[in-house]
């Protein structure tokens, strides 16, 4: 695997949603590094890539309440255990569970295994609330997929917090898990 600067020079064979991510980042003047790899479906499978990227390994969890009316994208360190009760009390939403695949595709234009904070750029109606564990932002870089799990990006945490999230129009709620 090789670390590249910025977007691929040849985008043939790449999905439109991935190209939209590169267009979005480039429009903001964001510098990022990229590794292309085979599809990675789990946090464990991402470890080698994240070591090469030198970035925080994040779990990206797409959650909802029992009524399926409130949706959340939670970023936590990859080695941290997730317990719904710890999060529920902090955000005032009981009975959290993993949201159905169809909501993930409808709101974020992503599929399981490709969940990424960058999917929020597709959430024009702001249906998904962004939650980030405070430990995630202690690291200088965040690793994430460009809405497809065959590439991974390294983005400065400051750029993510100060440029990307505001440009996506999503407010950020910090949590401590």
UniProtKB/TrEMBL annotation:
<dbReference type="InterPro" id="IPR007214">
    <property type="entry name" value="YbaK/aa-tRNA-synth-assoc-dom"/>
</dbReference>
<protein>
    <submittedName>
        <fullName>Prolyl-tRNA synthetase associated domain-containing protein</fullName>
    </submittedName>
</protein>
<dbReference type="Pfam" id="PF04073">
    <property type="entry name" value="tRNA_edit"/>
</dbReference>
<feature type="domain" description="YbaK/aminoacyl-tRNA synthetase-associated">
    <location>
        <begin position="37"/>
        <end position="161"/>
    </location>
</feature>
<comment type="similarity">
    <text>Belongs to the PRORSD1 family.</text>
</comment>
<dbReference type="InterPro" id="IPR036754">
    <property type="entry name" value="YbaK/aa-tRNA-synt-asso_dom_sf"/>
</dbReference>
<dbReference type="InterPro" id="IPR040285">
    <property type="entry name" value="ProX/PRXD1"/>
</dbReference>
């Amino acid at each position: 695997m090789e670390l590249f600067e910025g977007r691929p020079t040849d985008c043939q064979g790449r999905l439109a949603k991935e190209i939209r991510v590169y267009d979005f980042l480039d429009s903001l003047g964001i510098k990022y590094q990229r590794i292309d790899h085979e599809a990675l479906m789990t946090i464990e499978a991402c470890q080698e890539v994240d070591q090469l990227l030198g970035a925080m390994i994040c779990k990206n969890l797409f959650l909802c309440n029992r009524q399926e009316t409130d949706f959340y994208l939670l970023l936590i360190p990859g080695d941290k255990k997730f317990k719904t009760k710890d999060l529920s009390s902090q955000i005032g939403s009981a009975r959290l569970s993993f949201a159905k695949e169809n909501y993930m595709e409808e709101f974020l234009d992503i599929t399981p295994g490709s969940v990424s904070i960058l999917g929020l750029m597709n959430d024009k109606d702001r249906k998904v609330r962004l939650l980030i564990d405070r430990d995630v932002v202690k690291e200088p870089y965040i690793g994430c997929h460009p809405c497809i799990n065959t590439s991974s990006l390294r983005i400065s945490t400051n750029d993510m917090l100060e440029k990307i999230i505001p440009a996506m129009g999503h407010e950020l709620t910090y949590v401590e898990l």
